[in-house]
User: Fold these one by one.
Assistant:
Number 1:
Amino acid sequence: MKEEKNIITVNNLHKTYPGEVPLHVLKGVSFSVKEGEFVAVMGRSGSGKSTLLHQLSLLDNPDEGEIIVENKELTTLNEKEKAKYRLQSFGYVFQEYALLPEFTAIEAVSLPLILQHHSMKESRERAKEMLKLVQLEDRLDHFPSEMSGGEQQRVAVARALVNNPKILFADEPCANLDSETSKVILDLFKKLNKELGQTIILVTHEPEDEKYVDRVIHMKDGILL
Ligand code: ADP
Ligand code: MG
């Protein structure tokens, strides 16, 4: 059963990239996502999807507007508070996996917990559980160079989930994968959403991905349609 509570509400978000010709990319974006919802943000390349995701997930600072997660307004946090919030409350998956080459799968997934001062033993146990969840229990000690793209992305998903995030943010997570592997990743997201009630905000430009999600938010020229 899905609850009807909003987990995130965005009000009138604006973002302009400075420069000789400043680029007004977000022009007043407002929407909410409910707890346990799986939402896709779709739109053409350059429409501002990544910019929107970066503001929502505290990786960048909007010029104007509010981001409210569980009744807490996040844009007023200072940089240190934002860093802590990201580590404790959000999970991230990017197109290029963002795995460090010198860490094995289990090390990569343990790291967010170790950074939050959990013991090595507890962190590794939890990491192992997460790698099992993404069906990589037989790749624990593999380095990124020893895994396929799909496997690396599943490590990234396990890493994103290890701190039990309020929201999982994914920016074109399948853009580097073939269609069969993309399906594995999107099926995994669907399973995490259905079985764990994980709230997911997925950016994609692939109209076909619509079938996996509860709702699509369409972006065009910096506004939601
Ligand atoms: P999308 O993810 O939908 O492809 P983006 O949010 O990445 O779109 O980009 C929206 C627009 O903002 C594009 O025109 C892009 O070139 C520009 N842009 C993105 N990031 C920056 C940046 N850091 N500085 C300046 N312009 C940027
Ligand atoms: Mg993008």
Number 2:
Amino acid sequence: MKIAFIGLGNMGGGMAANLAKAGHEVRAFDLSEEALVRAVEAGCSRAASAAEAVTGAEAVVTMLPAGKHVAAVYQDAVFPHADDGTLLLDCSTIDVATARSNIEAAANAGLVAVDAPVSGGIAAANAGTLTFMVGGSDAGFARAEPILAKMGKAVIHAGDAGAGQAAKICNNMLLGASMVATCETLALAQKLGLDPQKFFDIASVSSGQCWSLTSYAPLPGVGPVTPADNDYKGGFAAALMLKDLRLAMEAAASVDADVPMGSKARELYEAFVEADKDGRDFSAIIQTLQG
Ligand code: NAD
């Protein structure tokens, strides 16, 4: 299949490579020359512009920083140049309102669009083991699923337009709040004189068990190997967690939802990102809570 891929950054680079590896003809475009060179090395063909990538493509994948970038690429390059019925898959994490309006605008332009944000970081993008949560029509999902399956280990239809983004930010709000709770709990356990590994062993098989503790322990040398064991490098940058928490707060306000824990997590990550100049993993917030 001829697939245009726009946005070949940390995530998109690996995803486009996996589509090429699966035998698709991937026409890649990014504003960054370096990203384009890497995509060509990974088996994609180089497009001179987003419009050129889209022309004659059967599907268009976007993996861009935020809603405004996706809306601009759709308006300027995709809508004017895509053939009727082309499938658009936006895998970026963007706000629910823009995702919905993009999908509606695509339908008005005679195209079929889904929002398909991902869970999993750069390693999962490279390995083709992302989880996709998809919003859109049944027909759109049926067409998107086999393409997304080449880049992920799970592809789930979350509901109508925007439901993928809603699922993504709800999941990440839970993750942000549970990471803060895990960090302050470990810090307290240490101050109370508990050996952190002993506490990990106990909580991992008790009612406090959660993913942030057992799969992503924020202390070096405790539990499985995590970014904490690598000086909090790699993993999921705190700035990206903050981005998702801000999107969650925006979405919560739009439906008048009360989210005190998510709101506190957003406040704590705002302060952490402001002070941290190293772009560290989001679990490094434990150092603030250790005092
Ligand atoms: P990135 O900044 O590494 O990549 C974005 C790419 O888009 C860059 O290469 C940039 O040059 C390109 N770009 C921007 N505007 C463009 C335009 N108009 N035309 C063409 N290319 C353009 O970001 P990333 O880490 O790959 O993240 C991409 C998306 O995935 C974001 O929405 C992010 O929130 C989401 N996400 C990231 C992670 C992660 O761990 N990095 C995990 C899950 C979801």
